[in-house]
Amino acid sequence: MTYYVTTPIYYVNSTPHIGHAYTTIAADILVRHYRQRGEETFFLTGVDEHASKVARVAVEQGLSPMEFADSIVGAWQEVPRRVEATNDFFIRTTDAGHKAFVAEFLQRMYDAGDIYEDVYAGLYCVGCEAFKTEADLVDGKCPLHDTEPEWIEEKNWFFRLSSYQDRLLALYDERPDFVQPRFRYNEARSFIASGLQDFSVSRAGQPWGVPIPWDPEQVAYVWADALVNYLSALTYARPGEDLRERFWPSARHLIGKDIIRFHCVFWPAMLMSAGYDVPHQIFVHGYLLLDDRKISKSLGNVVDPLDLIDVYGPDPVRFWAARAVAFGQDGTVALEGLHERYERELANDLGNLLSRTTAMIDRFQGGEIGGVPRADSEVAELVSTLGDDVARHFDAYEITAALERIWEVIRGLNKHVETKAPWHLAKDGKVDELQATLYDLVDGLRIVATALAPYVPDTSRRILEALGENVDEIGWERVRYGLTTARAGIAPAQPLFPRIDAPAVTA
Ligand code: MSP
User: Fold this and answer.
1) Which of 32, 72, 213, 478 suits 106 as a labelling partner, its CA being 20 to 30 A distant?
2) Collapsing DSSP states into helix, strand and coil, what is residue 224?
3) Atom 24, ligand 1: which residue's CA is nearest?
4) Which part of the chain is CATH 3.40.50.620?
5) From the CA of 19, how far away is ligand 1's center (Å)?
């Protein structure tokens, strides 16, 4: 089975923040891991441009929507680059290939008899880009945006979502893993079971979007356009190739909890209507909620949390994103937590382990280690189930639990240093035991560096390099004791995580 992972495509009406980077980082961690396991992978991210709110911001700035989108898209293309995500393609919904595909997709739904014309008279929240009912509102306002939705009355094309209720329930019953985690599956399923209303797939009041093929006076509703990106990208990301053959329907959609209905209800029904298989899985993660204090780099210079990458580098931010909140749950995190983990976990637990190990090999053995794995070694025992355990966590999207499992081994290796006290072995002339201990530490470090590669790719390379390993050999089969061979030339490693002054956090 191939592994195709997607992030939501982000609205370009404003600039990116750490919450958007969060999904992109998580998707990248997943895809890097599956590459290590030899899977054929594809990773898609990008932007959602045909939103009413994009058109509005453009007007405010005196630009056409296209000019505005072109002016801001660079900031969004920077997100995967800044977090060192290895996406295979970056989609823009204004791409000609996407627009043509959306038109064809809607035509297929129309030809299937699932689209009809009616008048939409109701509320629309531009913040959500969603049609609202009174029941969705609190004191007449959208609770997410704290704004009153607008009254819209226009002739629209509607999709018969209501007629897909039974098919959707059958899908959920047949595939209990379709939506994860389980509580999100239950949430989506009960929404379907409570009865579905048809929804409008077109907009008449605004010209920004993909023209409806049989009624070019109207454009596709932004969600009817955006969801299709997961499929359209596969048709033109590699000119001359149709990647759908390899990667559809093996898609895993990662989404935040705010967009469950669109992905877990609308999208599978739209796919069924257009004659496509539904995606393999949808994983819903919670929000990374930052405490609302501001951080400042130096006097009065307030930085966006995304700018923490400039302070700490991509690896510590990726590490923190995976570790600070259990993936799938919501969590409020304090920004100090990043600094604290940088010092305690990255610099001390991991960085010092490498520094000490390489320094001892230099000092006691002139930079040489012997290739002597021992089946009865404590380190062999310590790492014996690591590869399987971590892989199992990944298969359940548990990137936080997988990271904790790796950290257990790191803590175990640090304990091993203390228990064995190689400096005493050296002083007492216990040469064989010293050599065996240092071998084990190198092998243990090699294993954790390999397992950590999806989270902290640069750090992983630097560790492997310091150990004299081939930095490109990070296949999952190498997460196993005893693969280190005899070598010379190990020098004391530079600190992996040098001291950084903590950015100040102000109320
Ligand atoms: N354009 C739609 C998605 C279309 S997908 C076919 C959209 N865009 S968005 O810009 O609002 O991005 C929403 C996504 O950004 C969320 O689903 C989530 O993945 C991510 N996040 C935004 N803020 C977040 C947090 N504070 N925490 C975690 N993720 C968050 O909705």
Assistant:
1) 72
2) helix
3) 19
4) 2-285
5) 7
Mean pLDDT of the chain: 94
Nearest one of 107, 82, 104 to 28, comparing CA atoms: 82
Tens of pLDDT, residue by residue over 47-85, are 999 999 999 999 999 999 999 999 999 999 999 999 999
Q: What average pLDDT score do residues 173-179 get?
A: 98
Instruction: Please give the model's pTM, rounded to 2 decimal places.
Output: 0.96
For the domain 2-285, what is the CATH superfamily, name and number?
HUPs (3.40.50.620)
> Cα(51)–Cα(208) distance, rounded to whole angstroms?
8
State the distance from the centre of ligand 1 to the C-alpha of 393, rounded, in angstroms. 24
374: CA distance to ligand 1 center in Å?
49
Of 440 and 290, which is predicted with more confidence? 440
Residue nearest to atom 23 of ligand 1 (CA): 19
Phi and psi angles of residue 89, each rounded to the nearest 5 degrees, phi first: -160, 155
Enumerate the CATH 1.10.730.10 domain ranges in the chain, comma separated. Answer: 335-478
Residue nearest to atom 5 of ligand 1 (CA): 8
Instruction: Check pocket membership of 227 for ligand 1, CB cut-off 6 A.
Output: yes
CA dist 131 to 41, 179, 310, 379, Å?
A: 35, 24, 39, 58
CATH (residue range 335-478): 1.10.730.10
